[in-house]
Amino acid sequence: MFERVLSFLKELPTAGARPHARADDPRVAAAALLYHVMSADGVRQDVEWERFKVILAETYSVEGQELEALAEAGEKADGEAIDLYAFTSVLKRHLDSDARKAFIGLMWEIVYADGELHELEDNTVWRVAELLDVERVDRVSARRKAAAEVPEAKGRANDE
């Protein structure tokens, strides 16, 4: 199923080599949310940044300058945003229920990239999941899966 969702995400419309050209580009919306959760605890670690770029590269089949442009567009969009709804509304229009659940899984991968769950990261994923209409059980399941892939993970992976 994950491969099907990944395939769907790759087929989302692109804005050419300059992904920040359209404010409603779902790739930029996704990059902004992933960047936001990465920065939620106030510390952007290299391991998180690298995981962020790997997720963007794998999800959207981009590399090189196009990957850098997408990462920068996500960072810029997040910095200019006043809320998360601007991004989640774009994703809701473009992603079906399974793809939205998979996206929450990607957010958890970013959260656990450094091996720790910070309460602000947890809260950010919770808010995004709510805005994307991802059920609590699916959010918690995705969190447990991401935490299980990082043996030294610290945080509340078994809570809730």
UniProtKB/TrEMBL annotation:
It holds the Pfam family TerB. InterPro entries: DjlA_N, TerB-like. Coiled coil: none annotated. It comes from Mesorhizobium retamae. Gene3D superfamilies: TerB-like. This is TerB family tellurite resistance protein. Residues 28-143 form the Co-chaperone DjlA N-terminal domain.
